[in-house]
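I am still getting used to backbone structure tokens and would like to learn alongside you. To get us started, please write out a protein record for me. Start from the sequence, derive the backbone structure tokens from it, and show both lines together. Once you have written the record down, we can walk along the chain together:
***
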Amino acid sequence: MDELVEISQHLLQFAPDAMVVVDERGVIRFANETTVAIFGYPRERLIGRSIETLVPERFHFRHAAHMSSYLRDPTRREMGARFNDLFAKRADGTEFSAGIRLAPFRVGDKQFVAAAIRDMTERRAINEALVSAREEADRANRAKSRFLATASHDLRQPLQTIRLLNASMLKLSGDGGHVDELLERQAQAIDGATRMLNALLDISRLESGAVEPQNIEVSLASVFTELEREFEPAAAAKNLQLRFASTNVQLSTDRTLFTQLLQNLIGNAIKYTERGQINISSAMDADALTLEVEDSGVGIPQDKLERIFDEYYQVDTRGTQRMGVGLGLAIVREVARLLGYSITVTSRVGHGTQVRVRIPRQRLLSETPSAAPTPTHELRSAATPRGRLILLEDNDSVRTATELFLTLEGYETYSAGSIAEAEKLLAGIQHGDLLITDYHLDGNLTGLDVLRQLRTHHGRDVPAILLSGDVQSMLRVIKTPLPNCKMLSKPVDTRALLAAIEALAE
């Protein structure tokens, strides 16, 4: 028993923390050896003195109030909301960041409080370094987001100009000889550069955390219709059959991200299929809706399947042209993660690939099963109406190239480089006229603001096309679909632009 008492005394005297006991008046009644070592006071200079001897003068008033409040209801607890709030003073007047743990006890009818005091200087420095690192990371993320927003617009502008000029030269040439062949090759190079730029910007935005899903009610049939219109020309150029299943499913999802996921899967299927078909179907089970993109393409070797979702990885398949930078499926992976979907892939070399997107049943708003895949081609009028177009674009090169292209296509086109220049044109807009405007304009107003003001002034839904190098951000601002309006991404595909004009023509 005597040995146990001796051990206890040694533990108290030489504990890692300074141990101080004060009475209900705040007078120090006990201080261990660690207290002497940390604070630099001889024991005789501490016993019998106020605890405020160890508190910096600037905290005396606040400390007295806290001590009085604590003694009215003493409990075991940390002192201070955060250790950064607390400081202790050594005998030489220097201060250090302190962590203090309080424990009340009674001896007879007398109240005492034991305080365990630890030097937190090192921990405080580590914490400040972590806070600084986090702030620096936040600044870097904000800077990256600003760069991506700027790059999404500014880097696409030159490509927009080149693409439109190329289309105009093709229209003007028409000799069917070497010039046309060179221009076609140039168009292919522009398309390739556009795909690579889009992929690089998309994956950067997704990985930076700059994209947050905004779920709304989405009709799967309407998404399929948009995708068919987008990819039918590319499929037809390779004599491929592109089939979408009919469906009445409604789901809650981020429409932009959901569409982007399917765009990458379908684009990939067309890219690696030289003959046959691409089928997009859906099936329901007890737990989920499964969308399947199936092609009759070259297929993927089994030993490559695990790597196809890696960034910058491309399967080396013979008989297909190497295109892009290997980011399409990496984007699919990131989008699926954001939306809470799972992706599986099966494939046989020479027999095609099947990619399945599994959407949890709780994300569905209606669950009508899909019918068998059938082609859904729309009949278009052979004679495209030629109306008056009003173009608002603040980039001189893009505006000139767009106006030239649309004029050569037979449209009466008027353009303005600023909102002020466009005011007269917009004031006299007539039925049948169509506004084409860039979303990002110099000044305080966007193309969307101009459109809304125009519609309010004329009291009707003036048809319009909004162009942007960052369609995702634009859609998040718009949130709900705009009637009689098409939104296209820069660099805009000339066929998509003409199709949008045709669809909106009254």
